[in-house]
């Protein structure tokens, strides 16, 4: 149990592994570290962090951020199906995968790739670059995407299961869904292609 905010610095080449199921951090930040694994028995807030490898976070509550997160490798998040994930600072992710989460909000200051994800609520993505995927997305609630008017959105995995998708901003948009797909109000500056 940490009374103050832990700030971890292992060096860019060294891993940080704090994966005891009884951990209670509150807030934790990484000045530097390679592959970082964190587990918290309650909610977890991520302070400003720089991770040169992968970031794996498991919590038994909401996962939030209070500073910018810079992660060079894959970010994997598991908050539980009833808990929200809100990472809405000026973050810079590579690939983000949601193992479990209710309402999920991600903001990226560049392009973002979505790995295989299971989301029991809504998904909101705001980026300043392309939105792509490298794994199937299963989103029970509404998906809202904003990539900017000049940036493409390409979510064309044959295993995707969306409910409703709305495009706030995007250039050329490609969506694929393995079941029915409902389109919410959208503003698209380029082309749109939908495969079901």
Can you walk through the features of this model?
This protein is mainly β. 0% of the residues lie in helices and 51% in strands. The radius of gyration is 17 Å and the shape is globular. The termini are far apart.
Write the layout of secondary structure elements.
Elements: E1 7-9, E2 16-18, E3 26-32, E4 36-40, E5 44-46, E6 49-51, E7 55-59, E8 63-65, E9 69-71, E10 74-78, E11 85-91, E12 95-100, E13 104-108, E14 112-114, E15 117-119, E16 123-127, E17 131-133, E18 137-139, E19 142-146, E20 153-155, E21 164-169, E22 173-176, E23 182-183, E24 192-195
Parallel strand pairs: 1-3, 2-4, 3-5, 4-7, 5-8, 6-9, 7-10, 8-11, 10-12, 11-13, 12-14, 13-16, 14-17, 15-18, 16-19, 19-21, 20-22, 21-23, 22-24
List keywords for this structure.
196 residues; mainly beta; ten-stranded parallel beta sheet; seven-stranded parallel beta sheet
Order of helices and strands: EEEEEEEEEEEEEEEEEEEEEEEE
Main sheet specs: 10 strands, parallel
The percentage helix is under 10%
Mean pLDDT across every amino acid position: 96
| Intertermini distance | 48 Å
How many strand elements? 24
Q: What's this entry about, in short?
A:
This protein has strands at 7-9, 16-18, 26-32, 36-40, 44-46, 49-51, 55-59, 63-65, 69-71, 74-78, 85-91, 95-100, 104-108, 112-114, 117-119, 123-127, 131-133, 137-139, 142-146, 153-155, 164-169, 173-176, 182-183, 192-195. With 196 residues, it is mainly β.
């Amino acid at each position: 149990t940490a009374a103050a905010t832990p700030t971890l610095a292992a060096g860019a080449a060294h891993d940080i592994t704090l994966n005891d199921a009884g951990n209670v951090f509150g807030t934790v930040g990484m000045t530097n570290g390679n592959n970082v694994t964190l587990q918290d028995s309650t909610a977890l807030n991520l302070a400003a962090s720089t991770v040169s490898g992968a970031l794996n976070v498991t919590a038994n509550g909401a996962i939030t951020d209070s500073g910018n997160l810079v992660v060079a490798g894959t970010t994997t998040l598991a908050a539980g199906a009833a808990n929200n994930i809100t990472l809405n600072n000026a973050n810079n992710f590579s690939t983000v995968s949601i193992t479990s989460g209710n309402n999920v909000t991600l903001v990226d200051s560049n392009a973002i790739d979505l790995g295989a994800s299971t989301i029991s609520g809504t998904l909101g993505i705001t980026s300043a670059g392309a939105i792509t995927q490298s794994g199937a997305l299963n989103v029970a609630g509404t998906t809202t995407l904003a990539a900017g008017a000049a940036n493409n959105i390409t979510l064309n995995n044959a295993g995707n299961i969306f409910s409703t998708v709305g495009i706030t901003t995007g250039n050329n948009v490609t969506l694929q869904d393995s079941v029915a797909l409902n389109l919410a109000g959208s503003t698209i500056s380029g082309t749109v292609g939908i495969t079901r």
